[in-house]
Amino acid sequence: MNAIEIRNLSKTYPLFKVENVSLDVKQGYITGLIGPNGAGKSTLIKLITGLIQPDSGSIHTLGRKMPEQEVHIKQRLGIVSDECFYYEHLTIYEMGRMIAPFYKRWNDQTFRGYLDQFELSPKKKIEDLSKGMKIKFSLAVALSHEAELLIMDEPTSGLDPVFRRELLDLLADTIQDETRSIIFSTHITTDLERIADYITFIHRGQIVFNEAKDDVLERYTIVKGDMELLDADTRAHLVGIRETAVGFEGLSDNKVEAEQLFGSYALLHRPSLEDLIYFTAKGARKHG
Ligand SMILES: Nc1ncnc2c1ncn2[C@@H]1O[C@H](COP(=O)(O)OP(=O)(O)OP(=O)(O)O)[C@@H](O)[C@H]1O
Q1: How far is CA 222 from CA 32, 194, 272, 284, in A?
Q2: Domains of the chain, residue spans
Q3: Closest Cα to atom 12 of ligand 1
C-alpha cells in the first residue's frame, strides 16, 4: 500500500523543470527526500501538498486524487514546515482555536500536551516564534488531528541538537502502528541515516532512485585508490570522482562491478547519504 502515488508528473518553471516524475511513497514507513540545493525537493513537496499545480501527471495521496479530493486529503495530512503561517499576529492559543474546527479528528487535550512537551507557551505570538518553534508548533498541530501522513520540509534544520534527537525519536514512535507515514526532506542526512526506511533522491528535477535505505547503502560503494587506476574504463564506471594530489575517491553505483573492476588495488567502503549527494552533484553520468 502506498501513501503517495505520483505518475508522470511534470512542472516547468522558466529555468527549471520537474520532469516526468513517478514515485511511490510506502505507507507505514519514513521516506527521506534528499538532493542538492535547487534539485526540486520543495517543488515536489509543494506539488504533493497542492500549493502548486502540475502541468501534467497525477498524484494520489492516501488513495485519493489531487486536487479533486484535496479537502478530504487535507483532513488526513499534516504539513510540517516553518513556512505555513498566515496569521502572524495571533498567539499560539488563538491559532490553535482557529485551526481546531477545520479538523474532524482534532483533540484539544493532545494539542495542549504537545505544547507542554515542546515547551511552547500558548501566550506567545506566532510572529515572535523562532524557526524551530514554528516547526514544533506545526508538528503539534499535525499530531493533534491524527494525521496519517506527515509531510515535512526540512523539519530539523532550525532545531537544536537536543530537540532534534527528541523529534527523531518521536517520528520513529509515530509510525510504530504502521498506518502512519512520513516523507521528510532534509540536508541533514545523518537524521535520515538514523530513522529513514526509504530514500528518494532527486537531482535536477528527476528521481535518481527511490529505494530502501539499506539496499541503497549496500548497492553503492566508495572507491579509493591511486591515480594510475583511473583510465577511460574505470572513469566511465564511476558516477562522480574527486581527484587529489595523492589519489582519487569515487562513487560507484554497482559494488559488485566495482569489486571486479578494481580488485584488491583499490579500497572500497560503504558510502554515507552525503557521499551519494556529493558525488552525484559532481558527476555527469546517470546512475544505473
Ligand atoms: N515559483 C518559482 N518560479 C520559478 N522558479 C522556481 C519557483 N520555485 C522554485 N523555482 C526553481 O526551481 C528550482 C528547484 O527549487 P526547489 O526549491 O524545489 O529546490 P530544493 O531541492 O528544495 O532546494 P534547496 O535544497 O536549496 O531548498 C530552483 O532552481 C528554483 O529557483
Answers
A1: 21, 20, 9, 17
A2: 2-216, 220-282
A3: 16
**What confidence tens digit (pLDDT) does each residue in 145-172 have?**
999 999 999 888 878 888 889 889 989 9
**Which helix (H) or strand (E) is 166 found in, with range?**
helix 161-174
Report helix, strand or coil for 262: helix
- Which residue minimizes the CA distance to atom 11 of ligand 1? 16
Q: 10, 13, 150, 140: which is closest to 76 by C-alpha? A: 150
Backbone CA torsion sign across 237, 239, 243, 246: negative
Residue 284: the pLDDT is 62
Ligand 1 first shell, C-beta below 6 A:
13, 16, 35, 37-43
In the beta sheet, which residues pair with residue 199? 32, 211
Task: Give the DSSP H or E segment for 57.
Answer: strand 56-61
Nearest CA to ligand 1 atom 17: 42
- Quote ipTM for the complex: 0.98
- Write out residues in the chain with pLDDT < 70, as ranges: 84-86, 284-288
Compute the distance from residue 15 Cα to the ligand 1 centre, in Å.
9
Task: Give dist(CA 223, CA 266) in Å, integer.
Answer: 6
CA of 197 to the centre of ligand 1 (A): 26
List the CATH code of the domain at 2-216. Answer: 3.40.50.300
pTM flag (> 0.95): no
* Residue whose CB lies within 8 A of the most ligand 1 atoms, among 11, 41, 81, 152, for a mutation test: 41
